[in-house]
Amino acid sequence: VVSKAVKNPATRIAEPEDGPVHHCGVAGAWSPVSANLPRSLFFMLFSLQHRGQESAGLAWTDPASGAIEHEKGLGMVRETLGSFLERDVPARAAIGHVRYSTAGGSGLRNAQPRVVECNKGRIALAHNGNISNSDALRAELAADGAIFQSSSDTELILHLMTRSRKSDPSEVVREAFSRLEGSYSVVMLWNDELWAIRDPDGFRPLYLATDGGLRLAASETCALLFDGPRPYREIAPGEAWSIGPSGERSFALGGRERSGARCAFELIYFARPDSEVFGRSVHEARTALGAALAEDDGVPGDVVVPVPDSGNIAAMGYARRSGIPFDFGLCRNHYAGRSFIMPDPAKRELAVRMKLMPVRSVVSGKRVVLVDDSLVRGTTSKIIVRLLREAGAREVHLRLSSPEIHEPCYYGIDIPTREELISNRMSPAEIAAEVGADSVRFLPLARLDECLGGKGGHCKACFDGRYPATRGEGN
Amino acid sequence: VVSKAVKNPATRIAEPEDGPVHHCGVAGAWSPVSANLPRSLFFMLFSLQHRGQESAGLAWTDPASGAIEHEKGLGMVRETLGSFLERDVPARAAIGHVRYSTAGGSGLRNAQPRVVECNKGRIALAHNGNISNSDALRAELAADGAIFQSSSDTELILHLMTRSRKSDPSEVVREAFSRLEGSYSVVMLWNDELWAIRDPDGFRPLYLATDGGLRLAASETCALLFDGPRPYREIAPGEAWSIGPSGERSFALGGRERSGARCAFELIYFARPDSEVFGRSVHEARTALGAALAEDDGVPGDVVVPVPDSGNIAAMGYARRSGIPFDFGLCRNHYAGRSFIMPDPAKRELAVRMKLMPVRSVVSGKRVVLVDDSLVRGTTSKIIVRLLREAGAREVHLRLSSPEIHEPCYYGIDIPTREELISNRMSPAEIAAEVGADSVRFLPLARLDECLGGKGGHCKACFDGRYPATRGEGN
Amino acid sequence: VVSKAVKNPATRIAEPEDGPVHHCGVAGAWSPVSANLPRSLFFMLFSLQHRGQESAGLAWTDPASGAIEHEKGLGMVRETLGSFLERDVPARAAIGHVRYSTAGGSGLRNAQPRVVECNKGRIALAHNGNISNSDALRAELAADGAIFQSSSDTELILHLMTRSRKSDPSEVVREAFSRLEGSYSVVMLWNDELWAIRDPDGFRPLYLATDGGLRLAASETCALLFDGPRPYREIAPGEAWSIGPSGERSFALGGRERSGARCAFELIYFARPDSEVFGRSVHEARTALGAALAEDDGVPGDVVVPVPDSGNIAAMGYARRSGIPFDFGLCRNHYAGRSFIMPDPAKRELAVRMKLMPVRSVVSGKRVVLVDDSLVRGTTSKIIVRLLREAGAREVHLRLSSPEIHEPCYYGIDIPTREELISNRMSPAEIAAEVGADSVRFLPLARLDECLGGKGGHCKACFDGRYPATRGEGN
Amino acid sequence: VVSKAVKNPATRIAEPEDGPVHHCGVAGAWSPVSANLPRSLFFMLFSLQHRGQESAGLAWTDPASGAIEHEKGLGMVRETLGSFLERDVPARAAIGHVRYSTAGGSGLRNAQPRVVECNKGRIALAHNGNISNSDALRAELAADGAIFQSSSDTELILHLMTRSRKSDPSEVVREAFSRLEGSYSVVMLWNDELWAIRDPDGFRPLYLATDGGLRLAASETCALLFDGPRPYREIAPGEAWSIGPSGERSFALGGRERSGARCAFELIYFARPDSEVFGRSVHEARTALGAALAEDDGVPGDVVVPVPDSGNIAAMGYARRSGIPFDFGLCRNHYAGRSFIMPDPAKRELAVRMKLMPVRSVVSGKRVVLVDDSLVRGTTSKIIVRLLREAGAREVHLRLSSPEIHEPCYYGIDIPTREELISNRMSPAEIAAEVGADSVRFLPLARLDECLGGKGGHCKACFDGRYPATRGEGN
After folding, report:
1. Gyration radius (Cα) of chain B, Å
2. Which of A130, B144, C192, C463 is the most buried (most CB within 10 A)?
3. pTM of the model
4. Minimal C-alpha gap between D371 and chain C (Å)
5. Residue A460 contacts residue A264 (beta carbons within 8 Å)
6. Handedness of CA A77, A79, A80, A82 (dihedral sign)
């Protein structure tokens, strides 16, 4: 529990190429009359499963006692919360969380939501993001008598709220959240109120659906529509929204002027294609990325093959713009959901083969344009290129629908150290030699903004090192 | 165990639209020197997981004692056999099986391989298929003193072998297998020999790879290439192949003349796209089916959308031939691997939504050509059409890359009763009205043969009712 | 499955001192009207749990379909069959089994009852004992075409029944069971009949209760009275009893004259003290054993201390006869139900300490008479003596309520090899030196018969080597 | 978590007759050099398993990083901490806890030890007892900004320590613990120090062993001797002891004069017979209770039968003093470790029968003196008396080795409400009629002190209502 919380930057990380490295997801629901909201939360969290597989949790306010109940566990949503499919649990307010294990410590003690009782009443809180000034705040709060039972930022927010001398809830929130730097999308139960709060830079997405009296909040719109279409809007950067028996409110957290710092990788890789995030269709953004990647390329390919499924849409965008036919040249084994942990590191290739196999009839004798979303360490790409060559590909041209990654992220994404990032060690030509490709090309950084579209103002620090906010004490 | 085995035809079945209804897979390995073949089998079975998720099992001949060891369990390959990833189990011969639960009874007692000791020595046997004259054989064998401890056909084959008075193993096999009608692809350990045997009609695929002294056998080629490319060939219909310390042999089971009865659905839906079955690339066959479906269609679509993943390749084939752009208009949640069992049947729609969600930016305002592999009951298609319309699709035209299904299968595929088959109750126009589509069109039966290609001679009985072999006692 | 079945004698064995080494238990129930007999069986098997902890199983005839259903699993009754506490499963006939893993192979494939379908209909069979001529029978049956799917004797009995040409069920049973040598107490479902059959030597106990129309059969009477008192009688040696829709029957299996060979260890150690076996109260027999042990002893003790719980009653009998006060000088940790498997064999002492701890106030400064039921290898006794001395015992005199064990058992008890038996290597004086006791004394063999009482005719072969029946092929 | 913590008095409780209702146990270890202390803690907690079966936990200071690691889980010690048997985890300090679920809420969130990071460094704390002024302290601390994440008293102690302005650890402890009322035996890791602290009234036992440089602390001495004998002493009421790199210390918490309030039930029922608690051998105390109970009794019995195992020793004491023979007239099924939860409350009798069965040969025709430790609701006793009568007992005289229970406990024992206590509703004669006994007799309250012996000063409030300390806010 109390092992030193290494917050900035994340250092031990799986590679994006190796599977999802999403950074948590949140969801909440409020109903004017008692309803089985925990069951709705189950479906919403199931829709957000791609944002975190380490643990999942639910909290809800019991309408009879006013107590906040919760259940959480290590594992997938279906395993940990599956009982809610068959239970009838009435509630007027509920929140939930899926967690991806990041720096700072894993395990059940860091699972969310965190539920407490304090001078502000009963509170349950879950958040998605990374508080970049957490070390300083933690030290300050500890000196003032705060006890930390986990290494998560959630406790820190709760301690800040508890220390507020304000009596109006809005004032408490404003005072507490004004201390936070970094990224957060928060859902909170405060007695029988539901709150949704987003950091002023807008790093992580957060959406709100209104459906008669019902309110649903979630990291991505796919979770809001789990049982049918309904209108939704983005919770604005710096907005604090709440609803409760005494009404619905929204106010700005305030603070310094911000120009927006929406995480580019949410659109490039994290979010589900059927979601809207940052006011932009994820599918459209990825199609645009693929098209932009094709524009000045001119590589003489016979077939465009995606690395499934992360490269699917960009590959299709590339194929359309380039006129080179799209085809499924790699077959993904859908039962390889969770990675194998191979005892022998030399068996890494076998693990990739269990997930992806080349389709000989598609690639044999062909000049293959292989499209993936990003390149981090390059180890998996090297194996995939080998698979394609084994299946007879004449040429393999690796295309990435994001620019070269050079810098760590301080706002919630797991990226290896600078030394491990292949783009810090090699030029595209050197990378091509390393992974065995005939050529490697990245999306030009200059094209990124137009592809991400939406309301603009994205954080591209991992590409260009221009951090929109503090990076933690050490920096 | 001893509940009456209802063999012909299968009656309680999940719908192909609802997920995989593959009918088991087999694999085997033989090495001239002791090697960790059980671990290889693990990877081979993992590659065949799509053919059966109910149970999985392994058997191998211990090189020291000559005993046949086995492990099997209910569940996925990774859960039941995962320990083999970390164990070092030497063997010269091994076989394995993944089982899809079919009529005749589920549960661990029907898991394969089945391992016995008898007057022929030690035998382990696993099979994929359906013995259509099993009721008659079972009655005959029981009258002769045979004891049945399961309702699977595997025991029946073993009893036939035991009863042979021949001493030469090939004669025993020939005598025993000559009694069988129906479909089977069998792998067998006979003391320290590995056998692979395929029914004379060739209903189910079976392949053999040769790699130096190593031999691998499996239902699909994807399993043969689990750790790299190697040459392979089809085990011919009616071929019995074996290898052991005394050498390698192959002979024809003999019997009446056959014209071939390869299951069309293996190419249409069951096999993995990166496999070759019946001498034909699955990916090529599906591309051809999609193209043929497009040929005389002329529907004015704006976008071709597959039902992922079963419709992916045919949709791409359709798009290429028709010139209508292909796009991913339905997003599949990859964590919805196993179906939800919803307590309330009215919640069926919710279960589909957990698997598939429409991508508004792709389908809104568009005339959508929706491509799936087949139509059985039509219930899931109805929900999918509704999802697309909710997301703004202007028109939805449902296209199926197989002909209309009219008849049950007696050779191993789970198909509902005639009454439940929507094509027995409605014309395409009526189906369109029922599922809410603007039009519905099936692959013309006349185009099937050219698409399936390969060596020809396919079983299309579920489409046209022309059964190539006996259908069971009642017929 | 097909590992060589080492039947005679059992060689790998836990030590009686280390915990229960009972050899299986059986139970059955029949009701003239449908009742939740599987649930009754759960309670009966739970009462017989001390006879076997490796696996447990139930079978019952479904009154609607006539099919025999079954469930079995590895583990304790509560774990494997606990669901029956809450299920309502109607049946008119049911049987069950608890298994202690013995030579011949463990694992689920040897769990009982075994359920088959054959020319005699549907049969489920469970047995307690050891067929001593099984190797010869197995070879004969295999030559005749029988298939063996396990190494248990149960299959063998079923094959014998199947091979009978008789049509009358009693004749079938008589013919099949006349071939068996060794020990067995069998319960069997034959379609909708319940059978209970005991070997002609009467090695293992078997009892039958009559309660209106209800019939209950079990290895020990404690299981018959699970829900209240009811009258019972012993199934006689060589008796075959059955009940079914067509009535109740009993007949003698017949064969050569026998003088009775009831296993002495059932009374000395195996059976529960509240049971009657062989017409004798177990509690009375153990009290008599303790008293006889005291009679000529004359050791000057201050306190009689049992090794709990196996030595409790004999210690009390000893204390009463000798006049030396009884006291609980060893405290048993009731949570140490299953033995620890200590990775380091040197940690064996720690495992004993987790089960048994000395009570200083009872033994300090005292001359302790330590009473246990038997001495096999002597390793645990050595540790217990050390514990008592550590707690201040001035003298420790070890007394065993059974004679010295010299020979293996061929009828179902796990006894180490001759070489491992401490009484084959040392005199009592030498044993005392070895285990650190001041003296060691065994029950005189001559006193055994009077203590066991009941109807006489006990098997004492492990003490005197006089085997009442065949010992297996090798002998 | 935030459900209202009902502290005074405990209301939902299992009945002592129904099995252990011990109230938690604690253990700690310190070594001058790194050693596998977590493994030692496993054995110590296993020895204290009878004090709590709901959850178990371990914490230890990592010697390399200084971090405090922990593992805890719901279930028995073997299930939750069994991995420590095989792991080598070096530590110089470690603590552990077994928890019995009491009022205030169960579940993993209340499992101990609780591990935090605060202005005093890293602390892990576990306690056994009940803080009677916790509601007032909790309110005060919450008003001051404390956050509560559980309903356990442990957090409360930690908050008090954090609020201390002292810098000397002893002063911090003195200041914090001076605020506590009620019962506690605490073990604590404070960075790399081990602490053991006992409340000034001495309600719960706490012992300390010294073995060279090694220190072991535990609720009962049986845990100190888990691997062999070593010297020990009682931690005195009001003593705070600690050891760390800078040395060993002990001081008195101070405060008002106390006369001692050792819980009588620890000796009567809770502690293990081989333990010493409060300077008194538990076995001797129970023998004395049985003897005192016999003294003026004069009931004409034929046999003294204990309710195993809680009545064993008192029954033996009774038998010795009265001269009536002791015998095991009730047989306990050792596999009935955890109670059955019978779906039908009318099946309660069946649950008792699964645990206890009468031994006919002992009780038939006899006048039975039945000895148990206490009588709470009387429901189980009623069933036991019926069992004995069914087995032929001519008379049954129920004797309890404790006085009549009239009042609830505010210091950690689960006792039903006043209304449920049978002694508040009936006289002994009426109880005899209710439970079906010929007579019922309790230990005279006046005899209790001499039997408990030791250093005197026991809490007997549940018998006489004289509470030695506050009882909570409501009183």
Report:
1. 23
2. A130
3. 0.90
4. 16
5. yes
6. positive
Cα–Cα distance, D285 to D308 (Å, whole number):
17
- The alpha carbon torsion through A276, A279, A283, A284 (nearest 10 deg) reads 160
Q: What is the pLDDT of residue A337?
A: 62
Is residue C368 helix, strand or coil?
strand
Q: Where are the alpha helices (DSSP H) in C55-168?
A: 77-81, 134-143, 153-163
Instruction: Answer yes or no: are the C-beta atoms of D72 and D112 closer than 8 Å.
Output: yes
Going from the C-alpha of D291 to that of each of B201, D307, D403, D443, the distances in angstroms are 88, 16, 14, 10
Q: Do chain D and chain A touch with ≥3 beta carbon pairs under 8 Å?
A: yes
Dig out the tokens for C276 from the structure.
């009657």
For chain B, say whether C139 makes contact (Cβ under 8 Å): no
Name the residue type at position A245: P
Name the helix (H) or strand (E) containing B380: helix B379-390
Residue C475 and residue A324: Cα distance in Å, rounded?
A: 82
Q: Which residue of C has its CA nearest to B4?
A: C67
Q: Are B75 and B56 in contact (CB under 8 A)?
A: yes
Count of CB atoms situated within 10 Å of the CB of A365: 9
Angstrom distance (rounded) from CA A463 to CA B322: 40
A203, A129 contact by CB (below 8 A): yes
**Contact at 8 Å (CB) between D284 and D268?**
no
Whole-angstrom distance, CA of residue B411 vs CA of residue A2: 62
Q: Is D204 exposed, middle or buried (0-12, 13-18, 19+ CB in 10 A)?
A: buried
Nearest to B101 by CA among B188, B24, B155: B24
Span C20-76, pLDDT tens digits = 244 799 999 999 999 999 999 999 999 999 998 889 999 999 999 999 999 999 889
Give how far D114 is from chain A: nearest CA, Å.
8
Identity at C403, one-letter amino acid code: P
Asked if the C-beta of D167 comes within 8 angstroms of chain A's C-beta atoms, the answer is no
ipTM summary value: 0.92
Model pLDDT for residues D268-306, shown as the tens digit of each residue: 999 999 999 999 999 999 999 999 999 989 999 999 999
At A151, the amino acid letter reads S
Question: What string of DSSP letters covers B247-285?
Answer: EEEEEE---S-----EEHHIIIIIS-TT-EETTEEHHHH
Catalytic residue check, C24? yes
Contact C119, C190 (CB under 8 A): no
In the structure, what pLDDT confidence band is assigned to residue B337 with cuts at 50, 70 and 90?
Answer: low
Structure tokens at B25: 């897979």
Q: Taking CA D196 as the corner, what is the angle to CA D193 and CA D202, rounded to the nearest 5 degrees?
A: 165
Taking alpha carbons only, the member of A112, A75, A118, A69 closest to residue A92 is A69
- Of C450, C447, C445, C446, nearest to C423 by C-alpha is C445
Match 């713009």 to its residue by tokens: A321
B59 to chain C: nearest residue by CA?
A: C1
- SS3 state of residue D14: coil
C345: left (phi over 0), alpha (psi -120 to 50) or beta: alpha
Look at chain A and count its residues: 475
Nearest to D283 by CA among D260, D261, D314, D256: D314
CB-based burial label for B315 (10 Å; 0-12, 13-18, 19+): buried
Q: How far is CA B336 from the centre of its chain?
A: 21
Judging by beta carbons within 10 Å of its beta carbon (0-12, 13-18, 19+), is residue C136 exposed, middle or buried?
A: middle
User: Residue-wise over A126-158: b if at least 16 C-beta within 10 A, else e?
Assistant: bbbbbbbbbbebbebbbeebbbbbbbbbbbbbb
Substitution target in C42, C48, C232, C274 with the highest count of D β-carbons within 10 Å is C274
Q: Does D351 touch chain C (CB under 8 A)?
A: no
Determine whether the interchain pair B331/A358 forms a contact, defined as Cβ–Cβ distance below 8 Å.
no
